[in-house]
């Protein structure tokens, strides 16, 4: 039996269709004991996205970005969020989109990006799946100041940090973005050994 054999969608209604689409779904789910249970869930329908962590092995550095995030602010985080560069795919292939996003946000034109994994970040409420990449960078790959696109509301600061400093920032709570944490731990385990 597959999961599709255990789920019967009964009703889907759009509650909001602004920056993202918020839907409420009524469905029946067959529990492990065979009993059908009616459930109701709200989901944010987000397009898939990609994130990248540029690193320089010889210098032992990484590139991160720092920007304002309203949801974090609403939850009491009174600072700019330090993150991995990322963006929505917008119907592009993940590798193609992350190269463009990296250049927009960080100013680096990355030559070779390497996909390391995919993950749902909040599967209980958000449909978005992220594609995670790492890429080597050299100082001469910087083609602009980065900073994002002003017409999209982006006002991004680019950070170049040592891998040790970035890992310490996770430990002391200065980096709390899941994308950044996952990618930093990946390069710490597999690149900066």
TrEMBL record:
It catalyses: GDP-alpha-D-mannose + H2O = alpha-D-mannose 1-phosphate + GMP + 2 H(+). Signal peptide: none annotated. This is GDP-mannose pyrophosphatase. NCBIfam families: nudix-type nucleoside diphosphatase, YffH/AdpP family. InterPro entries: NDP_pyrophosphatase, NUDIX_hydrolase-like_dom_sf, NUDIX_hydrolase_dom. Residues 45-183 form the Nudix hydrolase domain. Keywords: Hydrolase. Homodimer. It comes from the Bacteria. Its cofactor is Mg(2+). Belongs to the Nudix hydrolase family. NudK subfamily. It comes from Bradyrhizobium yuanmingense.
